[in-house]
Each structure stands twice: as C-alpha cells, then as structure tokens.
Amino acid sequence: MKTEHTGFLIGAALFMVPIAPAAAGEQIKPALGYRDVLAPVLPAVVRILGDDSGRALMNISEKQSLRRPATRQYGGSGSGIIIDAEKGLVLTNNHVVEGVSDLLVQLPDGRQLPGQLRGSDAATDIALIAIPPEGLVAVALASDEGPRVGDLVFAIGYPFDLEQTVTMGIVGGLGRTSGQAYEDLIQTDANINPGSSGGALVDARGRVVGVVNASYLGDLNEEIGVNYAIPSLLAQRVALLLEKDGVVERPAVGAEVKTLTPSIVRALGLRRQTGILVTAVHSGLAADMGGLRTGDVIFAIDGSPVARASQFYNASSFAADGRALNLTVLRENARLSLRLEPKRAGSDRVRRFGAVFAMYTEQGAKGVAVIDIEPPTSGFYADEEPLAASDLVVGDIIMNINTRPVRDLADLSHGDPAGAPDVVLTVRRGSSRLLLPLPAPTP
Predict the structure, then answer these.
(1) pTM for the full predicted model
(2) How far is CA 276 from CA 94, 263, 284, 409, in A?
C-alpha cells in the first residue's frame, strides 16, 4: 500500500508541473509534418484512366489465401509517376494498362492528356506511357541505396476513384516475393487500395524509392497492412529498356537457382548459411560456357552479396550483349570467380510457352528444340498461373503444335490456329513421343 501511495503522489506531482509559456514576442511555429518533403513529388503522381471494355482493372487481391495476391475487379483507374517531363514519360504497373485501350492521363491540376503505351513487362509488372510534354512536372526515381527496414515511407496514388491521396507507414521488409522469378519487392504497411497501383512510394527525405504494386487481403477481404512496391532501381532499369525497345528481352542464361534455406544447408552439409544454390545448368548456354556447375553456391554478383534467387534472375535479365556477370561462388569449400556472358535471343531463337527455342537439325531433318526454360514469371495478376510450360524440359524437340507440323522457328511462332484457346504440343523426348496440352499464351 505504501508503494502504491508513493507512486500516486509522484504521478500527481508530475501532472501538476506547470509548462513554461512562450517568451514574450516569440512566435510558435506550426507543425508542418512532411508537407514540404512531399511537395516536389505530388505534382508528378498522376491518375491513369482507360477504356477497359472486356475486362476490369486488377489493382488488388481478393483470394482467400494470404500466400499470394489475386484479383479484385475494380474498374476505372490506376496511378502513375511522371519520370521525364521533356519526353512525357509516365511509369505505372503493367496490370494497370494491360488490356486497356484509349489511355488518358489526368494530372493533379485536372488536365487530361492522351496516353500512348510505349511498352510493358509483365515479369516485373512495369509499363511505360508517353503523354504530350505540356507543362509537366517530373520526379526522379531513387538510384542510390534503397530503403531499410523501419524507414518511414508514404504511398501516393488515387485509390477508390478519389483525388490524390497520401498514406503513411514504415518499411516492414525487403526482398519479398510470391515465388516468381523477377520479384524483389518492398513490403510496407502504408495503405494501398484499388487505384493506388502504379503510384509512388516516397521516403522521409522525399526520394521515390518504389512503385506501388499490390496488397494482400485477409480471409474476410479486409486490408491487413501487408503491401508491396517495386524498388525504384529495378523499375528504372525496366523503364530504360521499355523506352528503347518497347519490351524487355531477357537473355537465355541457362541456369536455375534456388535461395538457400536452413533445410538445404543441413541436407547438403554446406558451410555457408546464405546465398543461392545452383540447381541446374543447361549445356551450351552462358552459365555452362562460363563454368557454372550444379551444386555451386553463388554468394556475390558483381561484388555485391546476394541472398535471393530473384537477385540472380534480375541481374542476368539486364545483362546486355557485351556486359558480363561476375559471380563469386563456393564449390566444394573452394572460392571461385566466374564470368558469365549472357546473350540476348537473336533471330536464331524464339521465346514461347516460357521456354527458349532454337533450330535443331539431325540427319537432315529440321525441327525446333528447347534450349532453355525461363523461370516462372506469372506476377500478381495472372491468377498465379506460371508462364513457363512446366512440362517442357531442355532437349525436347517440338514436332507439332495442335495438328500443324513445326519445321522451323516461323512454324513455332505462328503454328497454332488463330483464335485457338489452347494448344497441344507433340514433343519428342529421347525415344518417346509425348502430347503436352498447354494454355495458349496471352497475345
């Protein structure tokens, strides 16, 4: 009782301590919060409008699983970021513009300008739009170090057909992925709602550190504070390729990798606890030619430590002709330095069904062979159906698509009947002949 009484007296005394008034003539400045920090960014975040006849914009998830986002149909708009005022370039999400015609970009000042799709990349969910460069304000994407866990961030966009909206949270995690190859996402609890996709994720210094991407929903379809953004450095690399070529053509590296887990480390008796395990190397491609072997553990790319499979796929996907990947690997407890030189697919290769094909000739007979399998890149908004045809393997010879023979790459590119919803591949694998039903790729 004595202790409780003493605590009460101390608390009362503290409560009664007077607060000194401001000195005479001294002006009390109002708290401005982060208004000045965000002011340069706000004019560059725009609304994306479009004619979405035949489909609804897919801005946020609605499945009953927390393991992956799915699609809530919410038509009307998304968000975007003006990244080049002189060229009129606007960055947004691929899922915002996919299947949309007659794009319109609404500026924060109310003006509406026609937009033209310059290119898109479903693997990273990035798209680039061009608008007339008339009195635009742009903001640069952060190209230096990204955010860190615990950093304060703001999400800016146009949710629920509202006017421009700012929400606040912190960075809850980095390097997040739903299992797809090219994801390296920022996790935040800043609210992201339908219409926010493609907007800006801004840190407390006013840097655009990410492009708002997706949100998880709980079992009752409620927001649970797990939201994602694409890192600015990755988005910037994709944007440059889309501006130049309209597409991102990824080279066939010929290696499959997996992030190390404690169970893998224990099972293989590895000494390293972090890194990337090489699970397959396909002959004749960059990884094989560079000396990479199955069982190698990659722990650095171009001198930077790596801990996730997505880091390898992202680094190799942006390796242009003449630019090598310098890997530091561990092989049987020996440290090795390897140099990989990925080559972009030229006219002698075709990508389809998530695989890379090249001409195959045996005893004068022409055909098309699988020389590489691309990692799955379904993204958040393809209903989690991987683009890679999982039943195809390196070395398969494609003989027919449906009933049409495949003798060369042109036949492979245009072999399925127009309008056919699905295709069946006739494949020769060793001495066996197989039929593989596969969904037709989305045009």
Answers:
(1) 0.70
(2) 28, 13, 22, 34
